Amino acid sequence: MRKLLFDLFGLFMKIQNDDGVAGIHRAAHLDELGVDAKRFDILYRQLRGPLDAGTHNYAQYLNAIGQELNVDFHAIPGLIDATEQADVESWADHHNDMVSWLEQLHAQGKKPAVLSNVPHTHLAWLKENKPWLALFDPALFSCDLGLAKPDPAIYQAAIDALGGHGDDILFFDDTYANVVSAREAGLRAVHFTGLAQAQRDAEAFLAGEEIG
């Protein structure tokens, strides 16, 4: 039986906008600490793997960034918690049309699954505030698996969880590097560019066509 596997952020959840990023900068007191925001943003992305995998907490994550910037984020009381909260809030909005499609797939018995990078604190927030998350079956999250995309092992974990073979699973991700690594791990995968494209690819794949 063919199955659909989705990334979460950039598909169902909206990516950060400028206001959300600015909120993180304010919470982290970048101006006060003399930190270049662009350099911070680069490290924010580069060093996020252990946070997503659940092997580092947010304090350890900011400490790793601080070491690269030669600043001590722990020196300002409350900064760690405030920055983590701002981080979660920057990823808090979802796409209504994608959620509607998810509901349709679920109602049709398609059992869509999800494989997403997400830290523990953010996942807890999602489970509390996005009830539609429960429609994914199975729901696979990096912080629970101890792995993060694009580690090949996380795709094997997904194949094992869904059963069958990677050839029978079509994975959608908006990050092209993750599409490449998923294919290398044995999944069929397509680069997500929008709802209409995803619906066409999903329908064709479930009908037996060679997609991904």
TrEMBL record:
Pfam families: Hydrolase. The keyword Hydrolase applies. It comes from the Bacteria. The keyword RNA-binding does not apply. Keywords: Hydrolase. One of its GO terms (molecular function) is hydrolase activity. InterPro entries: HAD-like_sf, HAD-SF_hydro_IA, HAD_sf. This is HAD-IA family hydrolase.
